[in-house]
Design a protein that fits this description.
The chain has 87 residues and is of the alpha+beta class. It has one domain. The protein contains three helices and six strands. Strands 1, 2, 3, 4, 5 and 6 form a six-stranded antiparallel beta sheet that branches. The model has no long low-confidence stretch (mean pLDDT 93).
Length: 87
């Protein structure tokens, strides 16, 4: 599974805009978000579609499918919850 390339990130742009608007996240490079000095979220692509690796808890990254609009909305909701829990 490789990191999401430019074409995949173009497809994710509406979701990226929503993530950019969240307080506490900084986009270090397109599609790669940090919280403070720690990596927090990035995207991958493979033949099964797009996925996000996101730190939802203390146990490291969790892989979430981000292929459909519904999955992307759910991803943003989970990121919002994770950010609010860590405040």
């Amino acid at each position: 599974m490789r990191h999401a390339q430019s074409e995949a990130l173009d497809e994710l742009e509406p979701t990226l805009r929503r993530l950019r608007a969240l307080p506490g996240l900084r986009e270090k490079s397109r599609g790669t978000f940090y919280r403070g000095s720690s990596a927090f979220l990035h995207f991958h692509e493979d033949p099964t579609g797009l996925h996000a690796d996101v730190k939802l808890g203390a146990d490291g990254f969790t892989r979430l499918r981000a292929q459909t609009a519904a999955e992307r909305r759910a991803l943003v909701r989970q990121v919002e919850e994770a950010l609010s829990e860590r405040t």
